[in-house]
Input
Amino acid sequence: MTRTQVVIVGAGPSGLLLSQLLDREGIATIVLERQAQRYVEARIRAGLLEQGTVDLLIEAGVGERLQRECLVHDGFEMAFEGRVHRIDLKGLAGKQVTIYGQTEIQKDLGDARLAAGSDLRYEASNVAIHDFGGARPRVTFIHQGRPQELECDFVAGCDGYHGVCRASVPADAVRTYERVYPFGWLGIIANVRPVAHELVYANHERGFALCSMRSPTRSRYYVQVGLEEKVEDWSDERFWEELKRRIPEDVAARLVTGPSLEKSIAPLRSFVVEPMQYGRLFLVGDAAHIVPPTGAKGLNLAASDVSTLYRILLRVYREGRTDLLARYSPICLRRVWKAERFSWWMTGLLHRFPDTDAFGRRIQQSEQDYFTSTPAGLTTIAENYVGLPYEPIE
Ligand code: APR
Ligand code: PHB
Output
């Protein structure tokens, strides 16, 4: 049996970033990933980073290409009722946001882990975690056709929403909170110049739309669709036509279209598990919580969980502060719930709800009007969007 200090299940951004940070401080990790490296690196996901996420990536030694290639935005736009409102993030909240694709972060982290000679096992199947309620957790799995077993001090469940770690916790030890929305986002990515310098979120009677980007030559666009919609029914032409109808006219007039590189539909969901710790198992990122993408918080919450667990484990190993282990879940959950609230609220502000009555629609309109016309409303949006502060670990 092999011994290590921390077994990390999942090599998404959470797992790789945690491994990278711990490893640089001499804490040994082994990462187990079900998929092949190529598959993990090809997944197209988020793209908007809070300053705290950028700072953590720099601290982890993977900020070089990010800082060279990223786009920094001082604000974003919201369009309702034919009018466009700019949210001046820098002016209102004193911070900017950074555009850099999760796909690129995944590659940078993968390269850094490889360069450090880390123990990262892709295509590990049948991962099972054992005895994590006690002092000596074990992890079993099959790799390259051989059954294997690891013994460790801690298990980090970085295995996403469908992973094995959260599902291994006794059902009566956790509580889950969930909301499913009656729509999804149809998203495309295309090698065309972005339609605007900053992001444009639009609420139109045909539904929500978002104009985002990955670089000066690569755009990311989304439209709200019903849950019954199938991606095969959406030709590129149909997508571009629908997007143009939902965004302000002058923006639509500037839109450059082109063939999509990827097209997919994602349902929208809010989900939280409490607590995020069970014994020596810690749930991190999407394994513990999901947000609808409207507030761009998914990857950023994963980063704040990683930061919290990393700083606690550092003090456990360096100073013997095992008392801090119990702080992980409450510290994370305070920030998680605020981001859940903001993501849920932005979703309500910007989408068309098929089941809303005339009263609900007027409330939505007055919310849009209030929050974009008062300093308090604008500041509330801005301070949440740029990311709330990380709680110190005392
Ligand atoms: N065994 C091993 N690996 C597993 C298992 C398992 N049983 N189940 C899932 N995994 C792997 C997945 O293949 C995936 O690579 O765990 C990884 C989880 O990665 P993500 O789903 O990307 O989750 P996370 O790393 O927490 O990333 C944060 O927040 O909003 C999102 O876009 C954002 O994907 C990002 C996420
Ligand atoms: C994205 O670029 O993919 C993106 C940006 C902002 C969001 C959601 C997604 O709110």
Summary: The chain has 13 helices and 21 strands. The first helix runs from residue 13 to 24. The longest strand covers residues 175-190. The radius of gyration is 21 Å.
